[in-house]
Amino acid sequence: MTDKNIVPEAEVLEPDDCWRLLGETTIGRLSVIVNSHPDIFPVNFAVDNKTIVFRTGPGTKQWAMEDDAVVAIECDSVSAEFEIAWSVVVKGTVEDAGSEGPRLDEIRRALFPWQGVGQDHLFRIVPASVTGRRFDLSAPMSLQTPLNDATRAGLE
């Protein structure tokens, strides 16, 4: 039997809450299938009309997406100050986002690639599912190790 005051249950988020949280962050982990195995890459992204747009260049991600257009992206945040955390996962297909239009130009400018030049391809994740959870970190057993200053700096 679990005491909810010691180990609270995760709160299931509604899709609109998931999209609001996704709109407040710009970094996620993109999962693609590479040679029949999952691989994960950090990407910066923007939300555009309940889709996710990110940019990349030639390489493993792009080749994997051309082979299998099914992807997932996970985004999360932890606030030691407010003692909450959340995680959102979007699963769907990926397609070329195109290259024209004022909104795409705005997104392209906002998504400065971490690796510099050559990240010129915009892709769009069209969701098949959007799920999310919020976690209360204030309960005594929700974290097995205390959040020291170094941990907090890495989480915030």
Observed structural traits:
single chain; 156 residues; alpha+beta; Pnp Oxidase, Chain A; 6-stranded antiparallel beta barrel; 7 strands; 42% strand; globular; disordered C terminus
Task: Provide the fold topology.
Layout: E1 11-12, H1 15-23, E2 27-34, E3 37-47, E4 52-56, H2 60-67, E5 70-79, E6 84-96, H3 102-110, E7 121-136, H4 149-155
Antiparallel strand pairs: 1-7, 2-3, 2-5, 3-4, 4-7, 5-6, 6-7
Structure description:
The protein has helices spanning 15-23, 60-67, 102-110, 149-155; strands at residues 11-12, 27-34, 37-47, 52-56, 70-79, 84-96, 121-136. Helices cover 21% and strands 42% of the residues. The longest helix is centred in the N-terminal third of the chain and has 9 residues, at 15-23. The protein has a single domain, classed as Electron Transport, Fmn-binding Protein, Chain A (Pnp Oxidase, Chain A, Roll), CATH 2.30.110. It is α+β, with helices and mostly antiparallel strands and 156 residues long. The model is unreliable at 152-156 (pLDDT under 50). The chain has a 6-stranded antiparallel β-barrel.
Strand-residue proportion: 35-45%
Named CATH topology: Pnp Oxidase, Chain A
| Anisotropy-based shape | globular
> Can you tell me the CATH superfamily?
Electron Transport, Fmn-binding Protein, Chain A
N→C terminal distance: 33 Å
Strand order of the largest sheet: 2-3-4-7-6-5
Question: How many beta-strand segments?
Answer: 7
